[in-house]
Amino acid sequence: xxxxxxxxxxxxxxxxxxxxxxxxxxxxxxxxxxxxxxxxxxxxxxxxxxxxxxxxxxxxxxxxxxxxxxxxxxxxxxxxxxxxxxxxxxxxxxxxxxxxxxxxxxxxxxxxxxxxxxxxxxxxxxxx
Length: 128
What we know:
4 strands; rod-shaped
């Protein structure tokens, strides 16, 4: 296992922030097709970070820049998670409303179907 220099750790943390910002932007703008690619890039950065061992000296352990970068990553990840949860809830509500409307229309159309002899979803032998 390689040993990290503090500058290397900071460089990778900055790359991670940039990647999470791209992910945040994709979620915000509804570009869902980009999310798998962003996830793969984040996983590659995580793999690179875990492939090294960081052995900081006493003065580097509480490096304020590293602490700030790590907390920014945590905050951005939390924001992405909350935005995704919100979007999923909206879509779920829309699906439920469409199901409700479908049932209302089915019930409203039932007397007309019976009047014209529709049964089993066919009309004059043709599938609807």
